[in-house]
Design brief:
- The complex is a heterodimer of chains A (100) and B (420).
- With 100 residues, chain A is α+β, with helices and mostly antiparallel strands.
- Chain A is built from two helices and six strands; from the N terminus they run E-E-H-E-E-E-E-H.
- In chain A, strands 1-2-6-5-4-3 form a six-stranded antiparallel sheet, covered by helices on one side.
- In chain A, strand 1 and strand 2 form a beta hairpin.
- The longest helix of chain B is centred in the middle third of the chain and has 24 residues.
- Chain B is globular, with a radius of gyration of 21 Å.
- The mean pLDDT of chain B is 96.
- Classes of the chains: A alpha+beta (100), B alpha+beta (420).
- The interface between A and B is medium-sized, with 32 and 29 residues.
């Protein structure tokens, strides 16, 4: 069975890891809101780019991480603390799978 | 008092600059900031590097706030302090509370300062004999205090007495009035600026102005708790560009005075390398981001389009305008720079040591390497130490040279990047 989400590291340093999560289609605003509801203290910022395009920035304040994506692309970028990256990535993938 | 600082930034589209208090501000990331600062700091046995790293920031902080207070007619000390605190955070320098200082000085402390916070998070521990890393904030705040209390430039002394990088829980500075003022000069402000339109090449469908304008509207705001700007997988600052330009120029001059003219090539090579570091981390981060996917990527096809796309982003970072009148190829790229921030700042000095912008040489070589060697346009690339070494250290793949330079008496900045 084909995985719903492809995930790979695209940047790494001693502090943080940046992941690219490739979905089958862009997440809609409702799904971003559901993601935001999954982690206490998180905040979702929507930036309107014109022509109906939206940039989503989800700050996971308590976990010191951030997700960004847009209505234009099925790619989501996750910047996670290196020490927290593995468990948080698992949580994130599970949540995304449930939303697709 | 809440101050909406964002509205105070003036976008000068014809200069590719973003100005606050008469100072062009440019976006850079923590990797670049640390590379440049640490490289200069490494010369501490040859000359007193604080005079460059702190003194330059003090000049700029003083000029910026003196002008801004006058522009806004802010005379009350409390309102002036609130404005400085807001700008400090909006620019991503961290958080600072000026309640503990007066016209005689005092102590300021914060757990959130860009250089200290990102150093501890990213790099190995510093040797114990080294001072703290918050040089820029130290000088910037000393200059701001002088402006707040209408004191002459150079009348406020400062020292950093605690740092996250020394195992302390906060960054702390002491400020004190000096009997004899420091020999500092007012900032060059907008310097020897020039104006131009962002050229739309006929041979690409990448909409240069549309991309620039969209990036200018991106909310690159600070975290409300830390005052740090997180974006593109790096931590950004909107620092006065004159700071970078002048510390580079002054470092070169001081090194030549201390060691002799033979050291100039070593310093220039370091400044070129700073351009590689910036291309790799800041621009590499931008080119693999949701913002890029939403704003730029829909217009891209082949590798050259990535070069046009990232060139259109640079004016929105405040660096100046990149004009491309000949299509780049994997072998070469010829470009003109209009109001390039380094040339514009240093061009305002009499008899500068730099006769071109070494940062630009490294930066545009770095862009070529990212596109044609890392092949960012074809694949998602892993940005790590191995890729950096492959692109820039195991034999640099590209070399940038100035065909014509405003700093060498030319009428324009024209560069050529070629394979080595």
């Amino acid at each position: 069975m084909k995985a719903l989400i492809q995930c790979r590291q695209i940047q790494v340093c001693a502090w943080r890891v940046k992941y690219l999560l490739r979905l089958e289609k862009p997440l809609e605003t409702g799904a971003w809101r559901a993601l935001a509801d999954s982690w206490p203290g998180s905040t979702l910022q929507l930036t309107l780019l014109g022509e109906g395009r939206v940039l989503y920035t989800l700050s996971l304040a308590e976990r010191k991480g951030a997700l960004t994506g847009s209505s234009m692309s099925a790619d989501i970028y996750a910047v996670l603390l290196r020490a927290e990256a593995a468990p948080l990535l698992r949580e994130l993938m599970a949540k995304l799978e449930s939303l697709l | 008092m809440r101050v909406e600082v964002d509205t105070l930034f003036q976008v000068r589209a014809a200069r590719g600059s973003v100005v606050l208090g008469g100072e062009p501000h440019v976006v850079h990331c923590h990797y670049y900031n640390h590379f440049l600062q640490t490289s200069i700091e490494d010369a501490e046995d040859l000359y007193p590097v604080e005079e460059v790293l702190v003194g330059t920031a003090q000049e700029i902080g003083h000029s910026l706030f003196r002008r801004l207070f006058a522009e806004l007619d802010v005379r009350d000390v409390g309102r002036r302090k609130a404005l400085v605190e807001s700008i400090y955070s909006t620019c991503g320098f961290g958080k600072v509370d000026l309640g503990g200082v007066n016209s005689e000085g005092g102590t300021l402390a914060t757990p959130y300062e860009h250089y200290a916070y990102t150093y501890v998070a990213t790099f190995p521990p510093r040797p114990p004999h080294k001072r703290g890393v918050a040089y820029f904030s130290q000088g910037y705040l000393a200059g701001a205090l002088e402006a707040i209390y209408d004191l002459p430039l150079g009348s406020m002394g400062s020292r950093q007495v605690a740092c996250l990088t020394k195992g302390d829980s906060e960054v702390r500075w002491e400020f004190f009035r000096l009997n004899h003022p420091l020999p500092l000069s007012p900032s060059v402000g907008e310097g020897r600026y020039e104006e131009a339109e962002l050229y739309q090449p006929s041979f690409t469908r990448v909409p240069m102005r549309q991309i620039r304008d969209a990036v200018l509207r991106l909310p690159l705001g600070p975290d409300s708790e830390t005052g740090l700007i997180e974006a593109f997988g790096v931590v950004l600052t909107r620092l006065p560009g004159n700071y970078y330009s002048l510390i580079s120029e002054r470092h070169l001059r001081r090194m030549v005075e201390a060691v002799g003219p033979e050291v100039a090539d070593v310093v220039l090579d370091m400044l070129i390398e700073s351009g590689h570091v910036c291309a790799f981390n800041t621009l590499g981060g931008v080119m693999q981001s949701a913002e890029w996917d939403a704003i730029v990527r829909p217009h891209l096809d082949g590798p050259e389009s990535w070069i046009y796309g990232i060139s259109a982003v640079l004016p929105a970072l405040g660096w100046g305008i990149v004009q491309i009148s000949v299509p780049p190829t994997p072998a070469s790229w010829r470009l003109s720079l209009k109001n390039w921030y380094e040339s514009t700042a240093i061009g305002a000095l009499s008899h500068p040591a730099l006769d071109h912008s070494p940062f630009a040489r490294g930066l545009f070589s770095g862009i070529m390497a990212l596109v044609y060697v890392a092949r960012l346009h074809e694949q998602q690339v892993m940005f790590d130490g191995a890729l950096y070494r492959n692109l820039f250290q195991n034999g640099r793949r590209y070399e940038g040279t100035f065909v014509e330079s405003r700093l060498a008496g030319g009428t324009a900045d024209v560069m050529e990047v070629k394979t080595k």
